[in-house]
Amino acid sequence: MTLGLSLLILLKETTTTPQWIFFTLAVGTGGGILYSAQSFAVQASASNADLPFAGAMYSFFRSFGQTFGVAIGGAIFQNRLTAILLDSSNPVVVANAKDWARDASALVEVIKALQDQAIKQELVTAYVDSLRAIWEVMCVFSACMFLLSVAFTKDISLDRELETDQGFIHKRKVSDEERRDNL
Fold it and tell me: Where are the domains of the chain?
């Protein structure tokens, strides 16, 4: 994940399609591996009786963390974009800086519709620089979490005996008549 985020920092307006595909593939692979691996780690550290609670808490805190991630990323992007646009020498860009920075999705449509190539290029550069600020912060955060995980992760075995109230008590063949009676 840290490697993938550090590659995203290298993206520019002139990045070729194969480059951005490779970069996003790297960060996607890192995120995908972490997404499923954490579930196993949570389940391994919980007792059989606590597995349902551990799964629920894992889901809750993952959603809670995603909420913070979106909010923090949005704040970083908006603040960086506002600062870049307010520093512009173009009065049109400065006048619209706060409105354009408020909604990143709408800004993409504004950029597409612009006829003035100078303003268009300035907005694209500001947009890319603002995304880079998010990736830089998240890369540092990811690297810190990686170091903490190396320092504090315990070795817990995933091998354990299945303890459940579900299943067959005796190994006997169920007759067709019993099967019909149970339906």
Answer: 2-153
